[in-house]
Write a structure and sequence with these properties.
Number of helices: 33
Distance between the termini: 28 Å
Structural class: alpha+beta
Strand order of the largest sheet: 10-8-9-6-5-13
Number of strands: 38
RNA sequence: GGGCCUAUAGCUCAGCUUGGUUAGAGCGCUUCCCUGAUAAGGAAGAGGUCGAUGGUUCAAGUCCAUCUAGGCCCA
């Protein structure tokens, strides 16, 4: 027996009840417990950074992270789901700095690193609480009790272990890194900080001659010089090389005054005007290793000063030859390093040139430009000097111009495993697939070494100790550190500053070794989660059983973040990527297509959104509205739409089933006619429901929630607006076949929808499907086993035709202005396949359109219909190719009726296709439209027609009046608040002969329709009923 | 500067993989119909040079190329 289901439902309130139910019955824990012995389907949770309040985009990712584990669990897998929190990193530090009103590292040092890190830890704990609440509210089932925290000691030690593996392979090294750096604050800036500080400034833009000294080149082109452009003359002091683009063409040009210069061919005209002569031309590759004389001779730079090749060089502006100062440019450093060129930096960390440098010693780097340009002028190296306005990064705190500055930094040599990374990527399934060889593949192809270290405080300390003799020791755990240092530090906090205080005798030379000062990039932390989350290898857990992941999912910004670090660390440490399938989501935008940001005030707060519309609605929107891969706009209107269109339609169908199931005292476990013995519409619904289970399964298997959602929404619509609409009468009568059919359809729908909308489906399961055992849950069920024998493609096609004809009939009704309540004598239908429909299906059309009978249109006299015919290009094109239009024209011009007759009798017909001669065509090569001529209401679409006979006899008219009376009484019943099972009595009087004839003919029918036990031609009744079309006094009373 | 994505009705989006001659849905608007579950449903109307150009083809919203605009990521 069903529970009573209210017709109207407060979805958010219902969800809160379900949350309590799950908690009370430990449903999630039990779903894990009952699947324990099954094969694993591995999911990794990417840890959100706990440095702010959760946003709507977190709900998006979490909806996807939830649906697939739920789905796979139903499909018979065990899917452990460990939550995780990303705790370290600059975002956390900056938030705390802001809270404390700090402006830089000096403040942190003064405050004390231990205290500062305590504040960071506290900040993380605070924000994790908000994520926990949002996660619970949206029904994301993930085990937060056993969550991994990247700041936990065991986690940090796992990270250390992995870094030691990488160090031992020789892939963790210290090197120089060029980064934006504020010379006043004495600290590097992150990219995020950099973006805030661009200011427009005017700098000198100089074109400088670098005389060529290569003997062979000089022999061919005497006195030739490279022409080099730069906006940072102060870096010319450190000039180490000149880079050219290998694929570009270069010219040796003699200009007006006889001077000979080498520039990119594309730029010669813009540099020299028309007045120059090309002495020679060559690709960039031929310039490689050409030696030149550097502009200044102020500092020592050995083994340098020749042309190198670099792909990043452009020929859009400048000269196509780029001056290289590896200490002051990231690209410069990369390209110079490839040639083994030295990195010489004459600028002190405070931004001033070293005192011993001639001319500019002790001068602030920016201030040196003037003197240097003057010297260039003096020694004849300056070709051209202009002022150049451009935007240049400044420190957002103190507005000092930043310097791109080479700093020592620790790198992981990911370039050494580039080929493996690419191979791993080839074996990975990306959704959408374009990421694989697009954004991500491109990133791998252009792989650079991973700059791992940060000169910061709140992070995993880099576990490398160094002695005064530069010997390095990588430490893989606190136990190892205890052993090396000779004191037990196994329960110490592995963070700064405590770990900094631990020294050890160098295993090589016994000198005291101290830890290097850096912490590591927090992206390494999260990328290490496959093993660090379980404390491998310090813990005894066999993480390999959960490696690699079958599924991970994040938004697209993670291509260079977590998606990369996971794959890189997996490949570095285990020579295998950590995931097989990755779903990459688009971003969430506001209703106007803008990014959500606190600054714009357009942030949708997730818990508020879910309390307004329900978590199911928000989840459905994320999963099924629009394409997950694409940036999507989200707003209240869009989510409200989900509620009305999908969730409430589903709910109303459930309420309907519950209502009539209870009225009939129907028992879902009782017997019902075998499907084959049920009416055609039942067989159709069972076919569609089973097809649904198969197709949703296939879509989810391919991670396609959009398609699965569309299938479900369409089915729910069919269920409510075709099956229930067409079958209502049988439910009123408590027909067990109808109840059993709808029950089964709802059971399958509820199971298929459960991973999408876990709340409403749980409610429905409890009310309609539960076997009554305490703790039963839709989320403990298996995926519905489709009965393929019930899937009937022929019936699906036939029903589709029926529904198309009904649509046409409604259109015809509308155009004739004869309302549907008025029965009509008959309809004529012309449609391919109509003749083969069973009487049962045709009856569906008659009932829906209120028509007594139908006939095939072609059974009428030829004079009644017009026949028109056009080519079916799809069929003709395959046969005639280029000649298709000839045949199509011939068909259009031929006598349609004659061809129709020929096709019908012989199965083929002949048309005269001009130069092709006569051609024989078959029925499937033409589209025939038949339409009746006079006195009919007609609608035609795509070759299918229906014509309604508009002749209304007195009998038909009275039958129509009877339906008016029924409708009026029903409305009165409803308005008076009668229960739908209440019985009534009818009183009526009329002086109208027509009304009396109507009652004589239809009284029983009316009584049956409105559940009247008596119909009296007399005054009486409590509730007057008005029937505008009729001179009739009518009243009813509840018995 | 590079890579990727997107462009279809007033708005939000399907359709494009596999080309077929009247390009669909929802929301909104107008008119009408139906209602014994429904906060629903149905019909008609208005609203489309399917971003532009060129190409392939008998045939292009769909395939190819170029371009334009917007977005994201990276320099």
């Amino acid at each position: 027996m069903y529970r009573a289901v209210p017709a109207q439902i407060d979805l958010p309130a219902m969800e809160h009840e379900i949350l309590s139910l799950w908690q009370l019955q430990s449903t999630f824990e039990r779903s894990l417990e009952q699947s324990k012995a099954r094969p694993s389907w591995v999911f990794y949770e990417g840890p959100p950074t706990a440095n702010g309040t959760p946003g709507t985009h977190h709900v998006e990712a979490r909806a996807f992270k939830d649906i697939f584990p739920r789905y796979r669990t139903m499909k018979g897998y065990h899917v452990p789901r460990q939550a995780g929190w990303d705790c370290h990193g600059l975002p956390v530090e900056l938030a705390v700095e802001k809270e404390l009103g700090f402006t830089g590292k000096q403040d942190i040092e003064a405050f004390g690193v231990a205290e500062f890190n305590d504040r960071c830890r506290e900040s993380v704990l605070r924000h994790v609480g908000e994520f926990t609440e949002m996660t619970r509210r949206m029904g994301y089932w993930v085990d937060m009790d056993s969550a991994y925290w990247t700041m936990d000691s065991s986690y940090v030690q796992s990270v250390w272990w992995s870094l030691k593996q990488i160090f031992d392979k020789g892939l963790l090294v210290q090197d120089h890194r060029v980064a934006p750096y504020c010379p006043r604050c004495g600290t590097g800036l992150s990219d995020h900080e950099l973006a805030q500080g661009y200011e427009t400034v005017v700098d000198p833009s100089v074109y400088v001659r670098f005389p060529i000294t290569d003997p062979a080149f000089v022999a061919k082109y005497p006195n030739a010089a490279l022409l080099v452009w730069t906006t940072t003359p102060w870096t010319l002091v450190s000039n180490t090389a000149v880079a050219v683009k290998p694929s570009a063409q270069y010219v040796v040009a003699q200009i007006a005054d006889g001077e000979v210069l080498v520039v990119a061919a594309e730029l010669a005209a813009s540099l020299f005007g028309e007045d120059f002569v090309v002495l020679g031309e060559m690709p960039g590759t031929e310039l490689e290793h050409i030696a030149y004389e550097r502009p200044f001779d102020l500092i020592e730079i050995p083994d340098a000063h020749y042309v190198i090749l670099a792909d990043y060089v452009t020929t859009d502006d400048g000269t196509g030859l780029v001056h290289q100062a590896p200490a002051f440019g990231a690209d410069d450093l990369t390209s110079c390093r490839a040639y083994g060129l030295p990195v010489v930096n004459p600028v002190r960390p405070d931004g001033h040139f070293n005192d011993e440098v001639p001319l500019v010693g002790g001068v602030f780097f920016k201030k040196a430009d003037e003197a240097l340009v003057a010297l260039l002028q003096k020694n004849g190296k300056l070709f051209k000097h202009v002022q150049y306005e451009h935007s240049y990064p400044h420190c957002w705190r103190c507005h000092t111009p930043l310097i791109y500055y080479a700093q020592p930094s620790w790198y992981i040599r990911t370039t050494a495993i580039k080929d493996s990374l690419i191979a791993q990527n080839e074996a990975t399934n990306w959704f959408p697939n374009t990421i694989k060889h697009g954004r991500f593949g491109d990133w791998l192809e252009n792989n650079v070494d991973w700059a791992l270290s940060r000169n910061r405080y709140w992070g995993t300390p880099l576990p490398i100790w160094r002695c005064e003799n530069e010997h390095l020791v990588a430490v893989g755990s606190l136990a190892e550190l205890s052993e090396l240092s000779g004191r037990d530090v196994s329960s110490s906090d592995p963070h700064r500053p405590f770990v900094d205080d631990i020294t050890l005798p160098c295993p090589t030379c016994s000198a005291t070794a101290t830890r290097v000062p850096e912490v590591i990039d927090c992206w390494y932390d999260s990328g290490a989660m496959p093993f660090a989350a379980v404390g491998y290898p310090q813990s005894a857990i066999d993480f390999q059983a959960q490696y690699p992941a079958d599924f991970i999912c994040e938004a697209i910004d993670q291509t260079r973040g977590w998606f990369y670090t996971l794959m890189a660390i997996g490949t570095l440490v285990f020579e295998e990527s950590s995931y097989k399938n990755v779903v990459c989501l688009g971003h969430i935008l506001d209703e106007d297509g803008r990014k959500m940001s606190k600054h714009l005030g357009n942030v949708l707060e997730p818990i508020g959104l879910m309390n307004d519309h329900g978590a199911d609605a928000v989840r459905w929107f994320m999963l099924a509205s629009g394409s997950p891969w694409q940036a999507r706009r989200v707003g209240h209107a869009a989510i409200g739409d989900v509620v009305r269109k999908t969730l409430l339609t589903y709910w109303n169908t459930v309420a309907f089933q519950s209502l009539y199931g209870r009225l009939a005292n129907w028992d879902p476990a009782g017997t019902a006619p075998a499907p084959a013995d049920r009416p055609v519409i039942d067989r159709w619904l069972l076919s569609e429901a089973n097809r649904l289970a198969i197709e949703v399964d296939a879509a989810l298997d391919q991670f396609d929630t959009q398609r699965a959602g569309r299938l479900l929404a369409t089915f729910v619509d069919d269920l409510s607006n075709w099956y229930v609409r067409r079958s209502r009468r049988r439910f009123w009568d408590g027909d067990p076949a109808a109840l059993a059919t709808l029950h089964e359809a709802l059971r399958i729908t509820t199971l298929c929808m459960a991973p999408f909308t876990p709340f409403i489906t749980e409610r429905v399961w409890q009310d309609l499907m539960s076997n009554g055992e305490a703790g039963d849950s839709v989320h403990l069920q298996s995926w519905p086993t489709p009965e393929s024998g019930l899937v009937d493609d022929k019936l699906a096609k036939e029903m589709a035709l029926v529904r198309r004809v009904v649509e046409l009939g409604r259109a015809a009704r509308a155009s004739s202005a004869v309302r549907t309540r008025q029965p009509l004598r008959r309809a004529l239908v012309s449609a391919s396949g109509w003749g083969e429909l069973s009487p049962e299906l045709i009856e569906q059309v008659c009932e829906e359109l209120n028509i007594l009978s139908t006939d095939a249109l072609d059974s009428e006299e030829a004079g009644l219909v017009d026949i028109s015919m056009k080519a079916n290009f799809r069929a003709l094109g395959q046969r005639f190719g280029k000649q298709t239009p000839l045949v199509a024209n011939a068909i259009a011009e031929a006598d349609a009726a004659g061809i129709q007759a020929s096709l019908r009798t012989t199965g083929s017909a002949v048309v005269d296709a001009g130069e092709l001669g006569t051609v024989s065509i078959t029925a499937d090569e033409v589209i025939v439209t038949e339409s009746p001529r006079e006195g009919w209401a007609v609608a035609t679409e795509a070759g299918e027609s229906i014509a309604l006979d508009l002749v209304i006899t007195d009998e038909l008219r009275r039958a129509g009046l009877a339906r008016e009376v029924v409708r009026a009484i029903q409305e009165a019943r409803k308005n008076s608040g009668f229960e739908i099972s209440d019985r009534i009595s009818i009183w009526w009087t009329s002086t109208d002969a027509d009304a009396q004839l109507m009652w004589a003919a239809h009284a029983n029918e009316i009584a049956g329709e409105v559940l009247a036990t008596s119909v009296s031609e007399a005054a009486g009744g409590a509730i007057a009923v008005s029937v505008p079309e009729l001179d009739l006094q009518l009243a009813i009373s509840r018995n």
